[in-house]
Amino acid sequence: MAKANGSGRPSRLFRNLNAKIAAIPMILTAMVVFVGFSLWTVVYSFTKSGLLPRLDFIGLTQYERLWNNAKWLVSIQNLVIFGACMLIFSFVIGFVLACLLDQKIRFEGVFRTILLYPFALSFVVTGVVWQWILNPDFGFQSIVRATGWESFTFDPLNNGKIVMFGVVIAALWQGTGFVMVLLLAGLRGIDDEIWKATRIDGVPAWKTYLFVVVPMLRPVFITALVIVTAGIVKVYDLVVAQTNGGPGISSEVPAKYVYDQMFLNQNLGQGFAASTMMLVTVAIIIIPWAYLEFGGRKRG
């Protein structure tokens, strides 16, 4: 029997004891697989590992080579462009779609399914589909020219200056529905009395959404932000399927750089260094979120 404290309540350590015991295997697995191998990667990023990992420490040499590599710098630049566009447009479009569906329109289930369906597809399928759609010979450009607009040009995947925007289009098509569903669930959780009160006070709908609804959806926005940002950092298969990093290296991303270094160039040390930088990026995202969610909740 759990030992009681002075107030007669069971000790906090023994609360939900069965659940805590059941969670031990999962916790150990997470510690070994995630924490353990993450630390292993960080340690070997300071070594001269080639085809096989070896403890031949060379200090920060791998990181110096990494940040002097044009391919890595281009991949970081592309990630910033891709990430900014995804965060802005996926949330704006997702929120607008969620607001429209929240009006209890007819065939809402059909529209919701259609908008969410792309999220069920793999990034490889999405990349191939949009590679065909954006192909100038038989894709969107060809269709528009067939209507009589002969001078129309839209070939982002073969233009190094705008190729990442072609990737963004495909990513938005797939991921916006997921953001929409999360925000729609948040909207459905808002009390109807709030809407009635704003209508009685004569508050315009756009002000209600901007100054009342959006602040109330803060936890949903934060959760969606973390999920979308984590997906942005590790984007790989969409780029490989759609452009394979081309033309040239103009659509390279960090995850592809890691793969190329480790498996094509057989330079594990360089791949580990790039992986560590990605790990640091994810940590910068996750730690503030965890602090806001859990630290703020404890203070409250």
Task: Walk me through what this model shows.
- The chain has a single domain, classed as Orthogonal Bundle (MetI-like fold).
- It is 70% helix and 0% strand.
- The protein contains 13 helices and no strands.
- α10 runs antiparallel to α13.
- The mean pLDDT is 88.
Keywords for this entry:
MetI-like, 70% helix, flat, 300 residues, cell membrane, transport, single chain, MetI-like fold, transmembrane helix, mainly alpha
Please render the helix and strand layout as text.
Layout: H1 17-44, H2 61-67, H3 70-101, H4 108-120, H5 123-133, H6 140-146, H7 163-188, H8 192-200, H9 205-216, H10 218-233, H11 237-242, H12 254-264, H13 268-299
Whole-number total of structural domains: 1
- pLDDT < 50 runs, ≥5 residues: none
Q: In sequence order, what are the helices and strands, one letter per element?
A: HHHHHHHHHHHHH
CATH A-level architecture: Orthogonal Bundle
Q: Please state the structural category.
A: mainly alpha
What share of the residues lie within helices?
Answer: over 70%
Distance between the termini: 32 Å
What portion of residues belong to β-strands? under 5%
- Principal-axes geometry comes out as flat
CATH superfamily: MetI-like
Total E-strand runs? 0
The largest sheet, given as strand count, sense and whether it forms a barrel, is:
none
Radius of gyration based on Cα positions: 24 Å
CATH class: Mainly Alpha
Global mean pLDDT: 88
